[in-house]
Amino acid sequence: MQTPTTVKISFWIFLIGLILDLVAGVLVILSGIALLASDSSATAEGTTAGGAVFITAGVVALILALVQLLILWKMKAGRNWARVVLTVLEVLSLGSLFTGTSGMGIIALVLGVVAVVLMWVPASNAYFRKA
């Protein structure tokens, strides 16, 4: 069975978000390296973090994004378990609404919700049942 347009659009929305997550992870690592090189730390909302913390957070973000990328490819291939995992991850990300999300964060959340809805419309359901 050919991949429905709804699944393709959902895939691309998630993929663009993952690419942005990968870029953000690299930027966090680079920030950590810069902090280590300058022998300083960053302070935000009363919390101070050194370069090692930034590097660790960036590496963890990259690993999580790569795992999610694997799950995304499985979703596009019609694996229902991958669709469920992506849905759960997106529902969990809605919790960030309660932590003061920026305008870009809200746009990302809305796009994520759209991607999830597209994975569960009737055309997508038929595709996942047959695959």
Number of strands: 2
For the report, how would you describe the main beta sheet? 2 strands, antiparallel
Compute the number of structural domains.
1
Integer average pLDDT: 88
Q: Order of helices and strands, N to C?
A: HEEHHHH
Shape: elongated
Distance between the termini: 8 Å
Our count of helices gives: 5
Helix share bin: over 70%
Proportion of beta-strand residues: 5-15%
Low-confidence region ranges: none
Rg over alpha carbons: 17 Å
Biggest sheet strand order reads 1-2
Structural class: mainly alpha
Label this structure with key terms:
single chain; 131 residues; mainly alpha; two-stranded antiparallel sheet; 5 helices; 2 strands; elongated
Q: Brief overview, please?
A:
By secondary structure, the chain is mainly alpha-helical. It has helices at residues 5-38, 51-76, 80-93, 103-119, 122-130, and strands at 41-44, 47-50. Strands 1-2 form a two-stranded antiparallel sheet.
